[in-house]
Amino acid sequence: MKANGFDVVTGAFSYTGKYIARRLLLMGKKVRTITGCPASESPFGNQVAEHQFSFDNPGQLIQSLEGATVLYNTYWVRFAREKVTFDRAVENSKMLIRAAEAADVRRIVHISITNASSRARGFLRPIGG
Fold first, then answer.
1. What does the pLDDT look like over 68-126, one tens digit per residue?
2. Which of 51, 54, 80, 92 is the S-S candidate for 60 at Cβ 3.0 to 4.6 Å?
3. CATH code of domain 6-124
């Protein structure tokens, strides 16, 4: 593992990614996010470095992952709309994984949630939260 690495959490400012990022920060880890949400919506202030998703620019996507040791991928599409389709989400996920490989990320954790229940909220509660 890289000595000065950090963890990348896709979507760390919303949904599942927020809880993963919070837990990593509580563990003393450095965290970066690749997100579609602007920094003004960050629940972490300046604790989480932000990079925008750039599926149309693989080189930029690779750069956003360089130096990372772990990628926690929470990228998903709940409802297809306009150009955001399930097929596009699969292609984007493949591109993200290829970018992580090119950036020499050592571990990828892919989180997929289907039919999430409101009863499962306790499972996602961060330590101390």
1. 999 999 887 767 778 778 888 888 889 999 999 999 999 999 887 766 555 554 444 44
2. 54
3. 3.40.50.720
Q: Which residue has the tokens 């150009």?
A: 83
pTM: 0.80
Q: What is the mean pLDDT of the chain?
A: 83
What contacts 96, CB < 8 A, 6 or more positions away?
10, 34, 55, 61, 71, 73, 75
